[in-house]
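User:
Can I borrow your eye for a moment on a structure tokenisation matter? Would you put together a sequence-and-structure record for a protein of your own picking? Please set it down just below, with no commentary around it:
AI:
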Amino acid sequence: PTLCIHSSSVYAAKNTDVKSAEEVGREMVERLKELYPELPQPKKTIPHFWRYGQVYKPYQGTPGIVVLNEEPLILAGGDSFMGVSNLSTCAQSAELLAAKVRGNFDELKSGL
């Protein structure tokens, strides 16, 4: 079996530039063992820094999406535009992006 563990964004921001990936990986496995002592010892670990995986400072005003250009339509979105960084807000922003793109196509079709 495979187990993937993640740190909090606060822990990552504090440790990414001052510790090696291996050191952080060891700390995370130790903490996991504290929380779940019944887990078997891992046969292999692959620590990986994902520097930009979570929002640290959300986009001001948290509009859900931002129109960067109308023609051609260029949008920016994601949980950083929602105010709270999590899977649900990422999906909500994706729905807003899809609705904007769909609305743009509807406008193009009606003008034909």
